[in-house]
């Protein structure tokens, strides 16, 4: 499945207007998936079917108090999802988890290039633990290869992944509480043009713009599901 710098809001605005199809517009359709929470930013990821390996990602900004008061902030963008589609995720499938999940931190092999989320630059001693027998399951951990207190073959060395993890946002699925075996290491990351092992992936320039737009003060979430 294949996380601190503060950026001025003006930077995000410039990035968001860099894509002609991404200009916010009053009167946009309401959110494409049901959402009843209090977030002011929603990244909707909508697939045509539960078995689809591609989806449409659109970033939405709350524009008023009503459940229909939303405008498009960025997108739509083609996204790749899990090779087993969208639905109930687990450690033994390659499904992207359906549901609403918070977006609270980001990471990347490259330096922070604009997000206001807490950001961690990672290398080959930075891991996401997928060892279902470890109490560290589905958490970040720093340790040198060969010294980690978990089964490294069941973990993901973030620094070894390559360009797909140049920048990424953690999708907070199965994090509070953590259920062993329910799935781990779900991220919004750079696309390599292929379906994922359960993550959501979009082109690098689009990810950069979305990450610059995300604002922890607005409690962003992703809403993933089937049309």
Account of the protein in words:
With 227 residues, the protein is mainly beta. It has one domain. It has two helices and 15 strands. It has a five-stranded mixed sheet with strand order 3-2-1-15-6, covered by helices on one side. The chain has a five-stranded mixed sheet with strand order 8-7-12-13-14. The protein has a three-stranded antiparallel sheet with strand order 10-9-11, with no helix packed on it. Strand 1 (41-47) and strand 2 form a beta hairpin. Helix 1 packs antiparallel against helix 2. The longest helix is centred in the C-terminal third of the chain and has 10 residues, at 204-213. The model is unreliable at 2-28 (pLDDT under 50). This is L,D-transpeptidase. It comes from Amycolatopsis pigmentata.
Write the layout of secondary structure elements.
Blueprint: H1 9-16, E1 41-47, E2 54-62, E3 70-80, E4 86-87, E5 96-97, E6 99-102, E7 106-108, E8 119-121, E9 126-129, E10 140-142, E11 155-157, E12 168-170, E13 187-190, E14 200-202, H2 204-213, E15 221-226
Parallel strand pairs: 1-15, 4-5, 7-8, 13-14
Antiparallel strand pairs: 1-2, 2-3, 6-15, 7-12, 9-10, 9-11, 12-13
Helix pairs in contact: 1-2
Question: Taking Cα atoms only, what radius of gyration do you get, to the nearest Å?
Answer: 17 Å
Strand content: 25-35%
Return the string of H and E elements: HEEEEEEEEEEEEEEHE
The number of E-state strands comes to 15
Main beta sheet: 5 strands, mixed
Keywords: Signal
Signal peptide: 1-25
Protein name: L,D-transpeptidase
Organism: Amycolatopsis pigmentata
């Amino acid at each position: 499945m294949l996380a601190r710098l503060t950026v001025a809001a003006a930077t995000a605005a410039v990035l968001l207007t860099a894509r002609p199809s991404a200009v916010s517009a009053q009167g946009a359709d309401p959110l494409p998936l049901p959402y009843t929470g209090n977030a002011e930013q929603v990244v909707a990821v909508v697939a045509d079917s539960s078995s689809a390996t591609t989806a449409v990602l659109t970033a939405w900004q709350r524009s008023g108090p009503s459940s229909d008061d939303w405008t498009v902030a960025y997108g739509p963008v083609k996204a790749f999802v899990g090779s087993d589609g969208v639905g109930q995720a687990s450690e033994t499938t390659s499904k992207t988890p359906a549901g609403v999940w918070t977006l609270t931190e980001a990471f990347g092999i490259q330096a922070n290039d604009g997000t206001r989320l807490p950001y961690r630059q990672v290398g080959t001693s930075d891991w996401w633990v997928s060892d279902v027998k470890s109490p560290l399951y589905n958490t970040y951990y720093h340790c040198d290869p060969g010294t980690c207190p978990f089964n490294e073959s069941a973990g993901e060395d973030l620094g070894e992944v390559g360009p797909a993890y140049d920048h990424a946002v953690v999708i907070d699925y199965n994090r509070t509480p953590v259920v062993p075996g329910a799935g781990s290491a779900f991220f919004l990351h750079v696309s390599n043009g292929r379906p994922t092992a359960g993550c959501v992936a979009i082109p690098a320039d689009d990810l950069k713009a979305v990450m610059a737009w995300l604002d922890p003060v607005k409690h962003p979430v992703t809403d993933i599901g089937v049309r």
